[in-house]
Structures are given as C-alpha cells and as structure tokens.
Amino acid sequence: MNSILISIIVPVYNIEKYVEQCILSLINQTYSNIEIILVNDGSTDNSGSICEEYAKRDHRINLINKKNEGLINARKSGILASKGELIAYVDGDDWVKPEMYESLINYLLASDADVIIAGHIEAWHNTQEVQLNTIPAGVYSSENLTEVHDSMICSGRFSNFGIFSYVWGKLFKRDVIIKHQLAVDDSIFIGEDAACLYPCLLSAAKIQIVNDANYFYRQRIGSMIKTPDPKEIEKVSAFYDYMKNIFLDHSKSKSLINQLNYLTVSLLTVRSNITPKNYSNLILYPFEKVEPNDKIVIYCAGTFGQLLNKKINNNNSISMVLWVDEIHHEYQYFGLDVSAVELINGVTYDKVLIAHIDETFSLIAEKKLLAMNVPKEKICRVIHHEESEVEQTLLGYGINL
Length: 401
Known about the structure:
Largest sheet: 8 strands, mixed
Distance between the termini: 48 Å
Number of strands: 16
Low-confidence stretches: none
CATH class of the largest domain: Alpha Beta
Oligomer: single chain
Strand order of the largest sheet: 3-2-1-4-10-6-11-9
Number of domains: 2
C-alpha cells in the first residue's frame, strides 16, 4: 500500500494564524507516502516563512513560491509540480485527522474507484458539525453512475447538493483530475471548486461515496463576515458560461444544465444584493409574504442571513427586531449581534424569515418554529423556484442562457 504516492496540494495565502496547524496535520498522517505541495500564492504576511521552515524539516514538503494569481492558478501550479498517482487538496486554513489519507486510500484500493468522496466537519470556534453528502454512500459505476450525474449538483430539493462542490475532502486518480483542473479558467472566482469537480465526476468511470468525515473545514472571521461584491453577477456569469459549455456536450445535458440553473440561482440569492427583474414587486426578495411596516426576525446568520440583515437595515419600510441562530454563540464570537432561537417568543414580530437557501434545512427550521408555537402564517421560507421560474429568474439577473 505504501508504494502509492499521494500528492496533497495546499494553496496558501495570508493565513499565518492557521497554516502551521494545516501542515502539522499532514506531516502526522498515518499514511506516510505523501508529498505535501505548499503553494505560497504571494502571501504578504508570515505564511511563506512558516512554510519555508517546515519545508526544511520534512523532505516530503515541496514549497512553491509564486506571485499572487488566485486559487485556481495556485492549484494548477501544485498539480503540475506533483508526482503522485493520486491527488488530494487541502485548503491552507483547514486541517485533517491523522487517518485521513490512510482511510481514503484503503477505500480506493478496495473499490478501484477513480474518485473517493468523503464528508467533512464544519469547525467553528467551539462547535463542530459533521456534514455528509446527500447521495448515499456506495460505489457507483456503469450501471448506476447516472444516479450521481442526475443529482450531484442538485439533489432534488432547492440548493441542496447531492455531492458537496469542494475539491478538498476527496481523493482523485491523477489521470482523472489533472485535465479538469488545468482546464478551469483562471478568471473564475466564484465556483472554482465546482468548475473542476463536477466535470471530473462526469469523466470518472467509477465513483465511491463514503460517510467518513476526517476533514476540518474552518469557519473563520475572514470568510464569515460577508460583504456584497459589486461584480457578483459578472463573476457568477463567468462560472455559469464555463459550466454550461461543458455540459452541453454531455449526453445528460438537459439534467446537468437544469441542475446548474438551480445552483446559479442559489449562488445569486445568497451572494447578490440584486433583485431579479421578475421579482421586482417584492418588498424583500426572495421572500413573498413580507409586507410594509413588518417587524422581522431573521433566523440564521450565515452568508445569506448577513446579506438579509444588510438589506433590511437599508429598507425603511420594514425593521428587524431580532436575529437568531442555533449556534448564536459562534456568531457572537465573530462580532455579530445574534441571539438564541428561543428568544423569538420574547419579542413582538410579524414575520420570521428563515435565512437559509437550502430547502432541506429550511423545512427542518420551519418544524422547529412550529414546535415553538410560532404561527405558520408568520414563517417565511425562501422561494423555491420551479424549473421555468429558475430560467426566468436567471434572465432577470442578467445571466445569458
């Protein structure tokens, strides 16, 4: 088993507080035949110095110092420098359990899959949550691979991935991943992982999904506090065009483009501060039931909740009376004024907006609110578009279909 080399590509950019933990977690893997390719993408802090120090200590570390050209270019530099038969990715501010790659390679040797897909752990300051892929664990090849293709981007519920779009937390055969990584346009700044992963899965002859979760996905202040990007539509459009051109040539093009449409609407809903033209009559898109002078409670404080908070603060016709989340203490650590969900019953409100785009999660949240005696007519979930509505909404955002 130890004769198979795994190349682990780690992009590094201005993460001096976290990169040492990442490197140590890789050095201490129970599977030792690895090369750790640290790609210092023009860091201006001490990240490069930390990488250099560890490169001196462990011969398995290959440090690439380059000018800052973005995540895609860093990953390309890493994969071009790699020597392994197998490829893996770790983001430089994340870390992994010691058994991460021993576990993945054991699955690969047993199934001979081209890609092993595991779950991950969302790691907050004091909270950890295991996240598993929606498509059931198992080996998928010629007879059932279509099950993956038909739901890998959208499981059937709005904004719910069948397979998480990240390239990390997975193990790839080199000849399956390299062409797709190198093909991704450097100008893609939203959906970078998806632009590599999903085309790769389309070309894989055999895929295995497992329920292991040995990758820690750090939730940190730099990625937690969200600010709308004025070029959001332009960036999402670049991702959409790239993916659509790939999917058009596939036998499952209709299903794949439909899934892509749903993904793109959810990206824009979460990240954009723009209301699509076909919903311009709504006071607060993507919620239908909000009325003038409503007092609002926001339920959830992630990317979407933060965007919603800003929208409400800029809207004179409605007001926010409370912002809650299940892990409110974690958001308080990051400086957000978020309270416990149970406090809803202590305030006067007209609507509770479930600020989570994932339809599966929003259904769970609605059940919890009903159990707390929140009236159903006061609970608002996001619009979960039908297929024709998705296309019209994309056009309303200015996406070229």
